[in-house]
Every structure is written in structure tokens, then in C-alpha cells.
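Q: Sequence in, structure out?
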Amino acid sequence: MRRLLDAAVYRISVHNRAQLPPDEGIEVAVSGRSNAGKSSLINKLCRQNALARTSRTPGRTRQLVFFQLDETRHLVDLPGYGYAAVSGDLKRHWQGLIQGYLEKRAALAGLVIVMDIRHPLKDTDRQLAEFALHRGLPLHAVLTKADKIGHGKRMEAVRAVRQAFGGRASVQAFSATKGLGLDELESVMAAWYGVGGANG
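A: Exactly. Output:
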């Protein structure tokens, strides 16, 4: 899995459904509220500093960004959600684009939902998770910025989120800064992408 992720290259940014690449192969999507640490997670996962653009301005990602791992596999960065300063029209456009992709994409093998471990399970997180689970998508919740709190609180947060999803989603703590939880995340993705183990 590590070799596959290391090979990630930018492929396309999609602003509307008509621009989506052919619906084939295997895709894993990464979603999360603006400023939850989604871009940092993708960069850490692929061991590249600037693959996904990080920004101090929330809501920077305004399209579906496809990163190609090999001939048949893609990692997809979904637009950040929950940022109040975005106009209503743009918000509706994002929601329509994300919803249409999650609902109809046959190649989509799983969804990673990124949440700040200090503020997990906002309404928008819950809505997106419920939508994915209702569709039957495998869901993995990644609680980022885990280095900001102590070990006890970290475990407590993971338990609380796991309980909130009623065992229907896997949950882990993660820190892009420290690399905490990287192996666990790679193992989940290896299963979704159908490759042998985190290092395969």
C-alpha cells in the first residue's frame, strides 16, 4: 500500500459531474469539515508535502480533486464543508456535487471522514456519515490533530465516536505532525484498494 500511495500524482479537479473521469477501477474518497486537517492527512499519507494544498483559509478546496495511484486506483479529495463564509449558491453546488458523487459512483470503495479530535461529530459530519452508511459505503473516521491532547483523552474521543456510529464505522486517532495512526490508516485503505498489507 505504501508504494502505491508514494506514487500518487495529481490527475484532475472536477467542478461538475460532467467532468468526472470514467466510473471504473477503485476510488477512496477523503472528506471533512474545513480546517479539520484533510489536506495534511493526504500529504502525510502520500509522503508529499504539497500534493494536497493546505491553506489557512477554510473552504479552499472547491472541487473534487483526483490523485492517481496507478492505472486503476484513485484517491479523491472532496471539498471541505461546514464553512459559514461560503455563499449559499456555492454551498448548494458543493452539496450537489458531493452528494451526486457519493450516491452514484460505482468505483467508490470507501469514505474516510476527517474530524478534529477536539471537536468531532458536528452536525455536518453526522449528516455526511449517515448518508454514506445509508448507501452502504464502508466508512472510516479519522480523528486528526491527536498530538494536541493527552493519551487518555485521545482514547476517550475514539470510544465516543465509535459509540456514536454504533459500530457501523471504524474509528482511529491520527496526527499528521507525529505520524501517529499512519499504519492503521494505510491498513484500512489497503483493504479497500484490494492490495496486500500496509507495506505492499
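The mean pLDDT is 90.
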